[in-house]
Amino acid sequence: MYAGQKIRRVDAFDKVTGRTKYTEDLCDRGAYVARVLHSTIANGRVIRIDTAEAERVPGVVRVLTCFDLKEKHYFPTAGHPWSTDPAHQDVADRLMLTERVRFWGDDIAAVVAEDEIAAARALKLIRVEYEEYPFVLDVQQAMMDGAPLLHEAFPNNILRHTQTRLGDYEKAIQEPGLTKVEGWYETPVVQHCHIENFICFAEAEGDRIKVVTSTQIPHIVRRVVGQALGIDWGRVRVIKPYVGGGFGNKQDVLYEPLCAWLSMQVGGHLVKLDVPREETFVSNRTRHSIRNHIVSWVRPDGTFAARKLEAFSDQGAYASHGHSICAKGAGAFPQLYPCENVEVDAYTVFTNKSVAGAMRGYGIPQAMWAVESHTEDVCAAIGADPVEFRRKNLMPVGYVDGFSKNELYCDSFNQCLDRAMAAIDYERKFKAYQNQTGDVRRGIGIAMFWYNTAVWPISLESTSCRMVLNQDGSFQVQVAETEIGQGADTAFAQMAADVVGVPLEKVHVVSCQDTDVAPYGTGAYASRQTYVAGFSIRQTGLMLKQRILDYAHLLTRMPVFNLDIADGNIVRTTDGRVLMSLAELATEALYSLTDSRHITAESTYQVKSNAYSFGCTIAEVEVDIPMCKARLLNIVNCHDAGKLINPALAEAQVHGGMSMGIGLGMSEKLMFDERTGRPLNNNLLDYKLPTMLDHPRLVAEFVENPEPTSAFGTKALGEPPACSPAPAIRNAILHATGVGVNTAPVNPHNLFRAFTEAGLIHDESEVSRDV
Amino acid sequence: MDKSTGKQYKLIHCTVNGKEREVMVDVRASLTDLLRNDFRLTSVKKGCEVGECGACNVIIDGECFNSCIYLAVWADGKDILTLEGLEGPNGEISDIQQAFIDEAAVQCGFCTPGAIMSAVEILNEGRLLSDEEIRIRMSGHLCRCTGYENIFRAVKKTMLKRLEAGNRKQE
Amino acid sequence: MYDIKALYEAASVAEAIRLLQEHPRAQIIAGGSDVLVQIREGRRAGAELVSIYGIDALRGVTFDGEGAIRIGSLTSFSHIAASPIIREKIGVLGEAVSLVGGPQIRNIGTIGGNTCNGVTSADSASTLLAWDAVVELTGPEGIRRLPIRDFYIRAGVVDLRSAELQTAIIIPKAAYEGYFGHYIKYAMREAMDIATLGCSVNVALSDDRKTIRDARIAYGVAGPVPMRAPSAEAAAVGRPVCADTVAAFARAVLSDIHPRDSWRAARAFREHIAVELARRALTKSIELAGGALDG
């Protein structure tokens, strides 16, 4: 069995030798270079664009503006499965180039040039005349009557509002003896910061258009390019090479339609669109900033009588993934700590900011920031122990979600807590850090998370796999679930080897998805790769095995029920004798003069189940109060992601998610100028992505309760690690100082404000006036 | 200066991955451009082009530089090593590359070449670095996949292995 | 590919001066970590450049005749930090430049570039200012030397005349002998960051280590250019080595500095940190000088 083993990544050798080809490495040097002209106002309309000067720059091939877009095909960008029911389709509000500008950085024109310098020079020479409108950056201000309206179809800028009502909140809060705990908790706009920026190139192939792109979702890109260009989807061919990180940004269709269109405007010539880092921050996607208001009514025995959540999710200027992110977060609220009387109102609201889309965790990191900060505040308010309170109130074993039918089968929360507490020596530290004084103090804090794997039953879950047997008994595996760095190809190889019964090196996972060749599937998202692809790999592997054994029957005369494939050999199960190698069989099958067969298998599996993934973070900090700095000393995540297919890669993935959670909790924030709407820190110097020096050792622990609904016992792990570190760090700082910072990140700016308010530090200018 | 195009070129001589090279470079080119485009050394990655991410890091005369903010003409007379240069004639890889594989320090792989080259610079010093020193020396590489944990492990493990092997030789 | 109109490479100081005279619009490029970034941003796109990166004569740290420390302007931060002379005589400068950016930046970044770009956040600048460094400038009329505090004119502008280049930074013997110092970079990250505030302090104590004979303090990002805090210095010089002196010194910096309110940091926050850094850097400097606050 390979599943469960720490197998080395199948792509690691090429990656450590520099052989791995990413999108740009594959682009012919003869490509034209495209650059996008972005708006320099936050809200308004382009009245006129003068391209004359830009067109005169030597090396410029074409300058195209929003006014050159003769057919306006509005398209959606979310990497969601398409729905044939118009009511369930994503909002189609994008144009490749737009006259109506809705954020600073909107796409209004493009230059195609022979080289990057000509393109850059031309961009600077394009003169744009705007009609400017007032703009709005704050999510709640955007909902007010009279606020600048971004999209006519969405009054008060509300893209969507959903509600959950359980029991009777108003009646429940009348119960005598309740303690009311209330707080506002907010997460910042952050960005994915995959080290490979988004890049694609396009060229004509006959009457078709080929797009090679750094994407998580090649088949969805094919559909959306077709929609945006108004051409048949089969005329679009999309190729996904190795990807230098995606984290959800590349789960959106970004500039593939524009690049394809630009190529078509220059006679099908090869056009490369390589997005600079500064534009990746502004004009790709971001993580939704979500402001959450939580009210809890707590009984003296430490149980919840009633709870209320209002979530305001800042969508930015276009719908992208829309309300699904806020809705996922809001959905966690009544489930993580079930309560009989709950009111939830979730709003997703347009503002004149960069467009928010999918990002690792998909609303759960924001929700956990609020819910787990609030849980700590509840504990503080009623004097409860943070661990005991959680154990008492968390989702109980046997809990079933009526909608998804997801179930908590095992005591995962307590098991994860126990393991994490032991790993970080929680009990001792928690006691030792009580009631400290002095400038430098330590604290330890906990946060839990809840995460739903995959998207069923909200959306389609369909996965396809193809296996093709080679003469040597090895076989190719193709799926549509993409390798974007997470290690999917390695996990797939392990699964396929086990199902068919061959040594791992006999499995060749085709990493590149070419929509002309790759089986259909929707790509990498929702932490669903191993869970979802597992079904089609198992099903297809069994089909391939059946066909191999059928052929083995012809060659050996043994009944199929007495045959098996083990370690790449055809084995008679009754006595364990190796009858022939799979290589011998495969060669004979292909070249047989009596019965030649190309043994392949291909199938689609529609997944109609789903699984909860659980875990927690415990963080230990040291806070230097006068310096307004918190240093992370230790951090541990513990996950129940079901059975781990590859524990080494699972651990590595948890590290990466923790790192992203640490950034969200302590340093990252994309800022916008209040006066102009202009992004302020859209580069890797001013945007504080943590470095190696900003991290302590990262510890990943696991509890492996095999998921009963899963083809391989596995469930979500990709996104969960990013969900709970930020509130755990916040709670550790609260433990150290008594100060809870409700606005992430807990950076020195926010600590300065919070410590000043709490009287832990004094305003120096006032001190100086005293002397 | 080419009068017809206004473009300016310079003939430079340098050693790239042990091979002496002579190449005409556009003075506007960065070393990243030269290595990627002229020599097709595509391990040299572009992540920011302003020296902030470290993906384009290469070793020049024994020291690490972000090749994106290094003019190609400055490579004249220099000895340049990229990730491709670590591979032996028969495809053997170095200990640090193997450690990146073994420690699962590779995920998307985009920061990997630059990070390995910094590790090479450190390891070539042949001395014991504290954990803090390793972190300082590797801090010029932004990585979004690994949380740096396994990169750190790979570098430290290789350092200790080399020092141990060195000690054994001395004994 | 950078939008460079023309590049002229100098192999010697004399050639650099000649090239700058021949191409009066040309800008000097040393390590390029600022200039190239600005070309890419468009701020200096289409520039003519005189590259002095190849002038090896401008590299290295040496003693000159009178015991002064001479740092060639093209010496990289990593070479400054590794220099035995710097380590022995003015270790704090090595520590300060080891906090610039990340390792690769410290290999390309030069002390000359760091000071000639005139930015207030330069990690080397506050320490050079606090150690009374002298800037050596070479131009068509020969060599002139001026105190680094006079070199800075305003944000981004230094006293560099036409066809002139900075060739060395000199720390006179009197400026370093008997002094001990500490630099604190306050930034949002532990690496790859620019200072929110930088504070460099050094002291010379009396022979019995009970009195502060001299104290110098300089800040980066506390004003438009790196600056000294004379009121703070005055509050410490001649005072006993004790906690009260340190407190008075730290408080006094607020009479001297004028940090900005910007999206990078609020003024009140920077002021608070400035006082704290002064306190900590002086305390550490006294310790290094063999003094004790509780003694």
Structural features, described:
The complex is a heterotrimer of chains A (771), B (171) and C (295). With 771 residues, chain A is of the alpha+beta class. Among the domains of chain A are: 213 residues, Aldehyde oxidase/xanthine dehydrogenase, a/b hammerhead (Aldehyde Oxidoreductase, domain 3); 150 residues, Aldehyde oxidase/xanthine dehydrogenase, molybdopterin binding domain (Aldehyde Oxidoreductase, domain 4, 2-Layer Sandwich); 145 residues, Aldehyde Oxidoreductase, domain 4, CATH 3.30.365. Chain A contains 21 helices and 29 strands. In chain A, the strands form seven sheets. Chain A has an eight-stranded mixed sheet with strand order 3-5-1-12-9-10-11-22, sandwiched between helices. In chain A, strands 7-16-15-14-8 form a five-stranded mixed sheet. Chain A has a four-stranded mixed sheet with strand order 18-27-28-29, with helices on both faces. The C terminus of chain A is likely disordered. In chain B, 33% of the residues lie in helices and 16% in strands. Chain B contains five helices and five strands, in the order ββαβββαααα. Chain B has a five-stranded mixed sheet with strand order 2-1-5-3-4, sandwiched between helices. By secondary structure, chain C is an alpha+beta fold. Chain C has three domains: 48 residues, Uridine Diphospho-n-acetylenolpyruvylglucosamine Reductase, domain 2 (2-Layer Sandwich), CATH 3.30.43; 119 residues, Uridine Diphospho-n-acetylenolpyruvylglucosamine Reductase, domain 3; 111 residues, CO dehydrogenase flavoprotein, C-terminal domain (Enolase-like, domain 1, 2-Layer Sandwich). In chain C, the strands form four sheets. A five-stranded antiparallel sheet of chain C has the order 4-5-10-6-7. In chain C, strand 13 and strand 14 form a beta hairpin.
